[in-house]
Specification:
With 485 residues, this protein is of the alpha/beta class. It has 16 helices and 13 strands. The longest helix is centred in the middle third of the chain and has 20 residues. It is globular and about 55 Å long.
């Protein structure tokens, strides 16, 4: 099945008509406003709490999501590719940089051999990333006193590939993901021991210390997209302190947060969280279909899913976790969903699938609306916790119209950009200055930024960014895509 592309909608009225046709509720403003015209996206945002010991006034409501470029040096230090991306983040005009990069807290937690490391050996590299971004922002916009820059701390868990081949370290044996990822369900060595997890907590704290020393104002304790801390949230099948009931499944994350808060009281803490998931989907060149899950009902391997229908969200536990995070002094949360590894249409709505994905089983606008609505419900339930929304890139020309309307309506506090910044880093600045958007730079969700690293190639916007178009890797990517068809 094919769906109309966003570029086919000639104006806001046509875009709204498609939303109505799909039965989707999504706020859309008639026009994108500049800061001078009173855009809600230009309003400052206060983050922090009395428990976390500090607060910050962020200059506007645009946020840049953390993105792995698969392009750091082997020792975790930034390459010229990495620095260029962070320079673009600084040029974006967004005042909240959510982690910038997913930095592994130890070697075995890298998702690829060229992922950034938050380790002592790369302390100078971490500082260089931040300095590059801040210097560029200062050169473009002058004021950096309202610029909030964080570092995302991660362990890739099931998706660890520190030296190239898969080297999964899992919370528990998942009956569907083990099959999808080729993990032997009898292999106990792949599962973390409680003692190893205690040592991992120490690594997160050590990484947070490095981040603060490098000048970062906050760290993100990453709990999304199927990576380790997200997987633990569904570890009902795991015995012991770090599994089973809600308290056990959230214990690893909350212990890390409490330790960082107690040892670094001036460092703000954020959490990027997948607030709902679905059953894994099978990789296919056809329309995506979930892996068979009927025999697993009631489904006990998901977080934020209905146990009787894991294709449907249930936000009861995610909202309870958000309440707990607020009580722990978490300054802000960044709400995402699903995983790029097993249900990319949920996490990253797109008309063109990545090479390890499948054709979209729904109009991607449905996926965008699902994430926006989930964030609205979370914000409504925990109104005093600042929240960043995700999933807006597929809206393309109408992204500013929806982002502006969602913030104006109080559905979300800040709107985050990921893929869009790879092709069009200055979109936030252009919107706030009242400049016309540059249509030729608008991300069309071709998914090359995902397909490239799946084939061992550095990530970037090969279709629209002239820098990547000129690289020899562009031809390698083209051949890789041809071999997949």
């Amino acid at each position: 099945m094919s769906y109309p592309k966003i570029a086919q909608f000639k104006d806001v009225a046509a875009f709204r008509a498609r939303l109505d046709e799909l039965g989707l509720s999504m706020p859309v403003d008639d026009a994108a406003q500049s800061a001078a015209e009173g855009s809600p996206l230009a309003a400052p945002l206060s983050v922090g709490s009395s428990l976390c010991g500090s607060s910050f006034r962020v200059g506007n409501r645009w946020c840049i999501h953390p993105m792995e470029g698969w392009d750091a040096n082997r020792d975790g230090s930034p390459s010229e590719f990495t620095l260029r991306r962070w320079r673009n983040f600084g040029a974006s005009g967004a005042k909240l940089i959510w982690g910038g990069e997913a930095a592994a807290v130890q070697h075995d937690g890298r998702a690829n051999p060229r992922q950034t490391l938050a380790t002592e050996e790369n302390s100078r590299g971490l500082a260089q990333l931040r300095e590059t971004l801040v210097d560029e922002h200062a050169a473009r916009f002058g004021d950096t006193t309202d610029l909030l820059v964080g570092l995302q701390l991660t362990h890739s868990g099931r998706y660890s590939r520190p030296d190239g081949p898969p080297a999964p370290r899992i919370a528990y044996h998942h009956p569907l993901l083990d099959v999808k990822m080729g993990i032997d369900p009898r292999d106990a060595n792949a599962v973390w021991s409680d003692d190893d997890l205690e040592r991992l907590v120490d690594r997160y704290v050590a990484a947070a210390v490095l981040a603060e020393q490098a000048g970062y104002q906050f760290v993100d304790v990453k709990a999304c997209h199927g990576y380790l801390l997200h997987e633990f949230l569904s570890a009902r099948r795991r015995p012991g302190r770090f599994g089973g009931d809600f308290a056990g499944r959230t214990r690893l994350m909350t212990t890390i947060i409490e330790r960082i808060r107690d040892e670094l009281p001036r460092l703000l803490i954020g959490v990027r969280l997948s607030v709902f998931d679905t059953a894994p989907f099978a990789t296919s060149r056809d329309v995506g279909r979930p892996m068979p899950f009927v025999e697993l009902l009631p489904y006990d391997c998901g977080f934020g899913v209905d146990a009787n229908d894991p294709l449907t969200m249930d936000l009861t536990e995610p909202i309870a976790l958000l309440v707990k995070l607020r009580e722990l002094g978490v300054a802000m949360v960044n709400l995402s969903a699903g995983s790029p590894y097993y249900n990319p249409h949920v996490q990253r709505p797109a008309i063109f699938p990545p090479s390890d994905g499948y054709r979209p089983p729904e109009d991607p606008l449905v996926g965008v609306a699902r994430q926006i609505d989930a964030a609205r419900r979370c914000k409504e339930a925990v109104s005093d916790l600042p929240m960043v929304g995700t999933g807006y890139t597929y809206l393309q020309e109408y992204l500013p119209h929806v982002a502006q309307a969602a913030v104006r309506a109080g559905w979300i506090d800040s709107v985050g950009l990921g893929r869009m910044v790879l092709s069009y880093p200055r979109l936030p600045a252009d919107v706030l200055s009242g400049s016309a958007t540059t249509r030729k730079l608008v991300c069309r969700t071709f998914s090359d930024c995902t397909t490239a690293p799946r084939n061992g190639i550095v990530s970037g916007c090969y279709p629209l960014d002239a820098f990547y178009k000129r690289l020899p890797e562009a031809e390698t990517l083209r051949r890789a895509k041809q071999s997949d068809t």
